[in-house]
Amino acid sequence: MARLFPMLFIAFASPLLAADYEFVPVFQNGTGGYNAYRIPAIVQAANGDLLAFCEAREGGDASKIDLVMKRSTDEGKSWSQLQVVQAADDFKSLFGENPPPITAGNPAPVV
Prior knowledge:
The chain is an alpha+beta fold.
């Protein structure tokens, strides 16, 4: 019986707890000029803002990949417009028109 109680609690309490939260998509595939968003990361800044980062891809792994961010100032209820943090084309300014195959990805923000 002692093992059964936690399972019953979870089964009955989960729907009640879930009602307190609303699903708010931050990045949606096929929007903002990108085909896919991958590898999300989220941090809370010192002022309480939430910063969400991810890779924004025009295609698959070998396509142009930008790092993008959105900000929430209301605990995730709404999000800012998409901001490009690092554009894949920025590497052309360092290496010319034929940059080596460099990928900026897998965001790991630190605040």
